[in-house]
Specification:
Blueprint lengths: L1 H27 L11 E5 L2 E5 L10 H17 L4 H13 L10 E3 L2 E6 L8 E6 L7 E5 H4 L7 E7 L5 E7 L6 E7 L5 E15 L5 E7 L6 E8 L8 E5 L6 E6 L5 E7 L4 E7 L8 E4 L7 E6 L2 E6 L8 E6 L9 E4 L5 E8 L3 E8 L2 E8 L5 E3 L7 E5 L9 E8 L5 E6 L5 E6 L12 E9 L5 E9 L10 E4 L17 H4 L4 E5 L9 H5 L7 H16 L8 E6 L1 H12 L6 E5 L5 H5 L11 H4 L5 H10 L12 E7 L8 H13 L6 E6 L10 H19 L5
Parallel strand pairs: 32-33, 32-34, 34-35, 35-36, 36-37
Antiparallel strand pairs: 1-2, 3-4, 4-5, 5-6, 7-8, 8-9, 9-10, 10-11, 11-12, 12-13, 14-15, 15-16, 16-17, 18-19, 19-20, 20-21, 22-23, 23-24, 24-25, 26-27, 27-28, 28-29, 30-31, 31-33
Length: about 700
């Protein structure tokens, strides 16, 4: 009997051994996808680049779709062991969100407007109440109903007519940012037959309540290039073309001034802007040029009483200044200085009220809100006491009020919407973000700002947050985020989603690299065009600093960037791959030269002032020297997750697809390399507040799995 038990036990062990061997064999046969190479020679300036994967730009090619799906299957197969954890992360992040949340109501033209969510629903409900918040609710748009039958849905540009009876609204169900404008009667609920395709989604109503202006896009490049006028009841095919922006480096847009007196057409490129104005009482009149465009002259305009106020970089005001001009004669020779240029303070915006104006400034990276009376009898800053915070104006549509509404949050404190009485200086917190789940306590987290020395001597600020129990001895994982383009500032904001990393021992860092405007406009200028490499070396030098100061180590350092930040990721893994254990590149812009030479796709000609024009040899050579796709070499690369969307209109899906294919052919390591394509989404990823969390759960699980930290 004992002998039989031994034989049975040995048999079970043998079966388990064979089973494990079979599993190992099955794992071994899961090979990474290999895109076929079809060499295409691309020649410019007597330089020849050979692109083996150029064919992947054929969106309608069945082989292309098959390759993308093969990559998705590869990702799903090798991350199958994390699926339950991804679900756990998703539920964890979702559990912190108040599902039946609503926005803070704001009043405009006799109505209180509210955006709210219902439990379990993906999309918002837009509603309003007449005169007071105790009035019955009027539901304007229930996006959950509008989204039915669509894998993707976005509502934008809701604009109510001056008589409060009609609303223009834009919808996108493809994720290409090509919106249909429709009109809804808010009294009867009827949606009018008027339908306008291929727009930006926004409209500007004239004061006659039947005429509005809107922006159309080029159907191929998606450049916003035409302004039309639509009169209710007329077929959109007969809409009058008001303005055509002929310069392919410019986009155009239209809006209504806060004073409601003017319809304003704007044209802009990276470095130049221009405006036209029309009295909103006279929609059939002719727009008048505000001030003629001049290369390098940037300005924006704000109307108040009989004057326009101009935020501009005129006269070498690098950090911008404020000027003033009579509305009757607005050309630049009549502009008068109102607030002079300050070399160390970036002037970002102005909010105008009846008795006060509020300036949004940035001083040494910190946001400041300055309140001043029009008669100059009083001027002061709203006090803030942190170095890792963000403060900015909220919705302030009303002129005739002493209340200024703004948002404040820090890396450790959820956002708060605050009403500040500019007369009494008394502030009232009107709404605070609720972090549900019962586990969040802001006292459990620490934030700080440190400064890394760049290789050229510049000091690069880094905003950090971590759990108070996280060891800062080099053993902790750290996720370093960066963007660094277009002068876009990555502010140190609070994120309830991020807690899923912090509570597992991660440090989170924002590297405020050059190319953003964290330290003013010169900080941006030092990270663009022929200075673009500063963005990449700043990020790398921040990484080395964080390792040196034992916030982390090479074995535990991770990097994340999306879009232009994905370009940053592509550059750093070519330049210093040994610094990072893992990298996430979301919708990355990585094939710089090929894209910038193709003026048939969005974001090309209008980007020359940001990246350079590769038709210029100097720009071409410089771009080629850092373009991630062109600089892939035979070397070890970190573990990498690359994501994209098939319908992305900003960074076409084929850039990351080609990049991953080339990385697979050249890398000399056995590290993980995944390409995941959302076959239904575009540049912004999935629509719906919860579907987007599932994508974040994918990214976080990739990092946490590399660290082996699946338990909080």
């Amino acid at each position: 009997m004992q002998f039989l038990k031994i034989r049975i036990a040995l048999y079970i062990v043998l079966i388990m051994a064979v089973s494990c061997q079979n599993q190992n064999q099955n794992m071994e046969v899961i090979e990474a996808p290999k895109a076929k190479g079809i060499p295409v020679k691309l020649e410019r300036h007597d330089d020849i680049r050979v692109d083996d994967y150029y064919w992947l730009n054929q969106r309608d090619n069945e082989e292309v779709i098959a390759y993308l799906e093969e990559e998705n299957n590869f990702y799903n197969s090798l991350t199958g062991h994390t699926k339950s954890f991804q679900k756990e992360l998703f539920e964890e992040m979702k559990g912190r969100i108040k599902e039946d949340d609503s926005s803070l109501p704001y009043k405009l033209n006799g109505y209180w407007y509210i955006t709210r969510y219902e439990i379990g629903k993906e999309y918002p409900i837009y509603s309003r109440k007449k005169e007071n918040l105790e009035a019955s609710e009027e539901i304007m748009f229930n996006c959950n109903e509008l989204a039915e039958g669509h894998d993707y849905f976005e509502l934008r540009g809701v604009t109510v007519s001056p008589d409060n009876k009609l609303a223009a609204f834009g919808t996108d169900t493809i994720s290409r940012r090509q919106y249909h404008i429709r009109i809804k009667n808010l009294e009867t609920g009827e949606i009018y037959p008027d339908k306008i395709d291929n727009t930006t989604g926004s409209a500007a109503w004239a004061n006659d309540n039947k005429t509005f202006f809107y922006t159309k896009k080029d159907p191929v490049t998606l450049r916003s290039d035409k302004i039309y006028k639509h009169v209710l009841g007329n077929p959109s095919e007969k809409d009058e073309l008001i303005f055509h922006e002929q310069d392919s480096t410019f986009n155009t847009f239209v809006y209504k001034s806060k004073s409601k007196k003017y319809i304003i057409i704007g044209s802009y490129s990276t470095l130049t802007s221009e405006f036209q104005i029309l009295n909103a009482n006279n929609p059939n009149g002719d727009f008048k040029l505000f001030s003629e465009r001049k290369k390098g002259l940037e300005y924006s305009i704000y109307h108040f009483e009989k004057n326009f106020y101009i935020l501009t970089n005129r006269d070498k005001a690098t950090n911008f200044k404020l000027m003033k001009v009579d509305e009757k004669d607005t050309s630049s020779e009549n502009w008068e200085e109102f607030i002079s240029h300050r070399p160390t303070i970036l002037l970002e915006d102005i909010e105008i009220f009846k008795d006060y104006y509020v300036l949004t400034e940035r001083d040494n990276g910190l946001s400041k809100l300055k309140i001043t009376k029009w008669d100059d009898s009083e001027s002061y800053y709203i006090p803030f006491d942190s170095e890792t915070y963000i403060a900015y104006p909220y919705a302030n549509p009303d002129f005739d009020t002493d209340n200024f509404r703004y948002v404040f949050n820090s890396m450790t404190s959820p956002y708060a919407i605050i009403d500040f009485n500019m007369d009494t200086k008394v502030k009232e917190i009107k709404k605070e973000q609720e972090v549900l789940g019962g586990k969040f306590n802001k006292e459990n987290y620490r934030s700080e700002r440190v400064w890394a020395a760049a290789r050229d001597g510049a000091k690069v600020p880094i905003s950090l947050i971590y759990h108070k129990d996280t060891e800062l001895d080099g053993s902790s994982p750290l996720l370093q985020y960066g963007y660094g383009s277009y002068g876009s500032t990555s502010d140190p904001y609070f994120s309830s989603v991020r807690l899923s990393l912090l509570d597992r021992g991660f440090v989170f860092a924002i590297a405020h690299v050059r190319g953003g405007e964290y330290l003013g406009r010169p900080w941006y200028e030092a990270g663009k065009l022929l200075n673009k490499k500063n963005t990449f070396t700043d990020f790398i030098d921040c990484s080395k600093f964080l390792i040196e100061k034992k916030y982390t180590s090479k074995e535990h350092l991770y990097a994340y960037g999306g879009s232009a930040g994905g370009l940053l990721m592509g550059a750093i893994v070519n330049m210093n791959p040994e610094l990072y254990n893992g990298v996430i590149a979301a919708v990355p812009f990585v094939d710089v030269i090929t894209t910038m030479l193709d003026d048939s796709i969005p974001l090309t000609t209008g980007e020359f002032d940001e990246w350079g024009d590769p038709n210029n040899k100097e720009h071409y050579d410089y771009m080629k020297s850092y373009s991630p796709y062109d600089n892939v070499v035979a070397q070890n690369y970190p573990n990498m997750l690359v994501t994209t969307g098939l319908h992305d209109s900003q960074v076409q899906y084929w850039e990351p697809a080609k990049w991953v294919a080339k990385l697979r052919a050249h890398k000399t390591d056995e590290n993980k390399l995944f390409l995941y394509t959302n076959m239904d989404a575009g540049h912004g990823g999935a629509s719906g507040r919860f579907e987007a969390l599932k994508e974040t759960a994918k990214e976080y699980s990739f990092l946490i799995d590399l660290e082996g930290k699946t338990v909080k």
